[in-house]
Amino acid sequence: MKSLLLSVLVVIGTMCYAQTAADGWNVFARVKFNSQYFKELKEYFLVPAFDATTKAKEGTSVTLKGYYLPMDLEDVKTIIISKKPYAECFFCGGAGPESVAEISFSSKPPRLKADQVITVRGKLKLNDTNVNHLNFILTNAEIVTK
């Protein structure tokens, strides 16, 4: 009986953790985007309009489970993860800007493979002004599972 109870608790705990890991993507999915022209770059970009619920999440700990996207970034402590695999990601035209996040670690993260599924946790920073960064940034992040 004790063994069965322990097994049930592990399954429930795993289910709750999976919901938590998806929670960040659910928050991002609520955000609406508007096309805006940036004269200095001579290009249109999708700019987020963060609602009060999303703004309330800023500065809180957010967990994301996603696919590592290999990008050539200047900062070696930063990676990009996507809700969808590389072939379907935002940069390949298969998804929206709400499906990618910039992950900033305090130290260089371990070597990862393209499309490797990882779970990360960090403090949410929202970005609606700097087109050189993604709209959703996790700072002081850590890899929870890889």
Q: How are the secondary structure elements laid out?
A:
Blueprint: H1 2-29, E1 32-38, E2 43-49, H2 52-57, E3 61-69, E4 78-82, E5 100-105, E6 117-126, E7 136-145
Parallel strand pairs: 5-7
Antiparallel strand pairs: 1-2, 3-4, 3-6, 4-5, 6-7
What can you tell me about this protein's structure?
The protein is of the alpha+beta class and 146 residues long. 23% of the residues lie in helices and 37% in strands. The protein has helices at residues 2-29, 52-57, and strands at 32-38, 43-49, 61-69, 78-82, 100-105, 117-126, 136-145. The two termini are 33 Å apart. The model is unreliable at 1-19 (pLDDT under 50).
Number of domains: 1
**Helix and strand succession?**
HEEHEEEEE
Label the overall shape: globular
- Reported CATH architecture: Beta Barrel
**Alpha carbon gap, first and last residue:** 33 Å
Largest sheet: 5 strands, mixed, barrel
- Which residues sit in consecutive blocks of at least 5 with pLDDT less than 50? 1-19
**Helix-strand makeup class:** alpha+beta
